[in-house]
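Batch manifest line 358
LIGAND: N,N-dimethyl-L-histidine
JOB: complex structure
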Amino acid sequence: MICGMAIRTYTLLLTDRGMDVHSEIAMNPIAFKPHDSASIVDAVDPEAAATRDFAADVISGLSARHKRLAPKYFYDATGSHLFEQICRTDEYYVTRSETILLRNIAAEVAAGIPNGAALVEFGSGESAKTRLLLDAAPQLSTYVPIDISADALCEASGRLARDYPQLRLAPVVADFTGHFRLPRAADGRPRVGFFPGSTVGNFDRDGAVRFLRSVRQVLGIHATLLVGVDLVKDPATLVAAYDDSLGVTARFNKNLLTRINRELDGDFEPLAFDHLALWNAAHNRIEMYLVSRKDQIVNAAGNTFAFRRGERLHTENSHKFTVETFARLAAEAGWSANKTWISDAPRVALFRLEPCPG
Ligand code: AVI
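JOB STATUS: finished
ARTIFACT:
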């Protein structure tokens, strides 16, 4: 029990038989007694497993011909805090436009939510936008926030428990891009998935299709899914949103290097890299990079990496869609768009998806 409520962690365990066993463990690892002793190391210390994954990704990403790291590594405590600051910059319109849109359409969205439904949010963070739905749809019986950060879940769940005493809360600590099951609190209830913030744009196309397919599986066939999507717009607005004048996004990007230094015994000099945000028109995406200011050798995770002056480390893609391109992508994952709401400029969209029949 943490924060007065059971929060569950879902971990992928590798057994001595080389099989992936998907297991659900209590947050208090001492209470968990796996039958299979070879699983104990990961089972009792999910943090150590996460650090090992991070090290493996840093080693393979920095050894590649085109150096890259996955954007999920931005979000340590400092990175999450910097992301909240990005959302408040003048240039980063995504959060503001989506919040205004949600506020305007909340009653209409709520009208499509069945009685007693469970709201399942993927990557819930502070659950800030969720409150707009919870306020508009008192018929929701259950809220399942899923987030990789136990701290963020604890804080958000504590506040929600106070403000929505009728709502059943069933928080889940999990990487929402991985495999997990819904908690029992969602059993037998109509499910409404919620994935705001245009995070779907941070996957590559195949990754987005895979993710939406797995959401369809997790939610079941009588579900709806509300997805926030950023729309293609003029490149100047887009680039400014990812290269704000206060330099918050630059700090967010460079924090990745500070995180490697701290967690993987690295010796990156963040000041020896520049932040770069580019619009790639061919792929309809913003690309973020860290660009080496000089020839340099860097150590991290027990390995040595050479950077040439001007060499780029690719840290994020943020895809932008049209209503048609996103509907096509959703259809590939087995969802059909039954309603689309669009904000005022700078425009973002909220899609309501339903499983395609069959
Ligand atoms: C979380 N995600 C939707 C943000 C985006 O717009 O792609 C992450 C971000 N990166 C830089 N600014 C914001």
